[in-house]
Amino acid sequence: MSVARVTEIISGSPKSFQDAIEEGIDRANKTLKNVEGAWVKDQSVILDKGKIKEYRVVLKVTFVLSD
């Protein structure tokens, strides 16, 4: 029997939402073992003088806890 946990990660990128997602997943894999999946809970942009400064995503990351 497996037990999983879900944690929330906020990640940003000046390039795109896709890049912010990839950065968040890469970072999660560095600290969490057995990452099984993720979904985007929310997306937003940070503006500076009316221009997009950062694309930001809130990710829910699922990882399996080991025995």
UniProtKB/TrEMBL annotation:
Pfam families: Dodecin. Transmembrane segments: none annotated. Gene3D superfamilies: Flavin-binding protein dodecin. This is Dodecin family protein.
